[in-house]
Amino acid sequence: MVEQMTVSYKRLWKLLIDRDMKKKDLQAAAGISPSSISKLSKNENVSMDVLIKICSALGVDFKDIMELVQDTAGKGGKK
């Protein structure tokens, strides 16, 4: 059985809290769309371009804003 992995952006939200930034501040700083912020909030996949813009705007690396976690929903769960 293959274990499913999913992405988590908890590190991004913690970073924003530490920097006293709101999601709309990130959106403006990174030049990304409201729909990208919405996808990030739901731990959904976004394009590599969006991730690069966020990392560039915040001066961080991918590992600072996201991580792969085991999908606890299991088979048939929402991705």
Structure in words:
The chain is mainly α and 79 residues long. It has one domain: lambda repressor-like DNA-binding domains (434 Repressor (Amino-terminal Domain)). 46% of the residues lie in helices and 10% in strands. A two-stranded antiparallel sheet has the order 1-2. The radius of gyration is 13 Å and the shape is globular. The C terminus is likely disordered.
How are the strands of the largest sheet arranged? 1-2
- Number of helices, counting only DSSP H or I runs of 4 residues or more: 4
Major beta sheet summary: 2 strands, antiparallel
Shape, per Cα inertia axes: globular
* Tally of DSSP β-strands: 2
| Overall CATH class | Mainly Alpha
- Classify the secondary structure makeup into a structural class: mainly alpha
Helix content: 40-55%
Q: List the uncertain runs.
A: 75-79
Average of per-residue pLDDT values:
91
In whole angstroms, the N-to-C terminal distance is 17 Å
The CATH architecture name reads Orthogonal Bundle
The H-and-E topology, N to C, reads as EHHHHE
**CATH H level, superfamily name:** lambda repressor-like DNA-binding domains
User: What is the number of independent domains?
Assistant: 1
Cα-based radius of gyration, to the nearest Å: 13 Å
Query: Per DSSP, what share of the residues sits in E-state strands of 2 or more residues?
Result: 5-15%
**CATH fold-type name:** 434 Repressor (Amino-terminal Domain)
